[in-house]
Design goal:
The protein is built from 12 helices and no strands.
């Protein structure tokens, strides 16, 4: 009997304290990293993820441009187009560098930017207040509405000979045509922005007994900023395009003058260099306006996707 009891005792599981001791001594095959290390590694992983997303976005956005430049380089060399009229991109880039090195590009770009920014600034200073008045006050809209309909459908370049005849071929006519062309996108978008403000916001503000100036300052202007900036960005592109056409008549400096003179002298790579410079300035100007819009519209809550 003692032997049986002894063997049964040998087969019995060890007490709970002994089992815990054996469990503590056994190594864990999947150790858990310390909490501090995981907390430190989390920002690193997030940073790497953001870096990967930024790299993927940059590659995606530049892929089409790189493909266009590659096609531009190969098409003339393979005889798909006449390289006399469309030289390879490498020749255009070399011509651009030569123009930049001898100062011609900087001189002409400075002249164009001075005219374009002056006309653009005057258009913003005139069109935004006028658009706010027309959009907010119905009598002003009834008075100026028919006149606006006449001029908004008249192309700026169609009036270029009129500006030259009335104002001459100097700086005044070039800046004036830019002001005229830039005014309409800003003015029409400003009017639309004021008229399309959410009526619920207006009623809510009036129920709080806000005065008309405070209502305009606190509700109408902030709600109108995105649409106004859409017109401003359109005007920014128009200011450069219209100016190039204006500089082809009687100008002695400017990117339009550079392009026109290069065409007459059959300096085709220099002509394309001027066109590329105009495109780069337009993209940079648009990005500057986008950054300004984001800063002025930072109060807006982004829509959920």
């Amino acid at each position: 009997m003692s032997t049986a009891r002894g063997s049964a005792a040998d087969l019995a599981p060890p007490p709970s304290e002994e089992r815990q001791e054996l469990h503590r001594e056994r190594p864990d095959p999947h150790p858990t990293p310390p909490a501090g290390g995981a907390a430190k590694a989390r920002p690193v992983r997030r940073g790497l993820a953001r870096l990967r997303r930024a790299a993927l976005t940059a590659v995606t956005k530049s892929a089409a441009i790189l493909a266009l430049l590659l096609l531009w380089e190969l098409a003339p060399r393979l005889g798909l187009v006449d390289r006399t009229f469309l030289p390879p991109f490498s020749e255009v880039a070399r011509a651009w560098w030569d123009l930049a090195a001898d100062g011609q590009l900087v001189t002409n770009a400075r002249a164009s930017l001075a005219r374009s920014f002056t006309g653009f600034g005057l258009a913003v200073a005139v069109a935004v207040p006028l658009g706010l008045l027309i959009g907010w006050y119905r009598p002003v809209a009834d008075l100026l509405g028919p006149l606006l309909e006449v001029f908004r459908n008249t192309a700026a370049l169609a009036l270029l000979p009129v500006f030259v005849l009335l104002l001459g071929i100097g700086e005044t006519s070039k800046i004036s045509i830019v002001v005229y062309a830039c005014t309409w996108p800003i003015l029409l978008n400003t009017i639309s922005a004021v008229r399309n403000v959410d009526p619920t916001l207006v009623r809510l503000a009036r129920s709080m007994d806000l005065s008309a100036p405070r209502l305009f300052q606190k509700v109408i202007l902030p709600a109108s900023v995105p649409t106004i900036f859409t017109g401003v960005r359109l005007a920014g592109a128009v200011s450069i395009l219209v100016l190039v056409a204006a500089e082809m008549i009687g100008a002695k400096a400017g990117l339009g003058y550079l392009i026109n003179a290069s065409q007459y002298n059959f300096a085709i790579p220099q002509m394309y260099a001027g066109i590329i410079t105009i495109s780069a300035i337009g993209v940079a100007f648009n990005q500057l306006l986008v950054a300004a819009e984001r800063r002025l519209s930072s109060w807006r809550v982004p829509a959920a996707h």
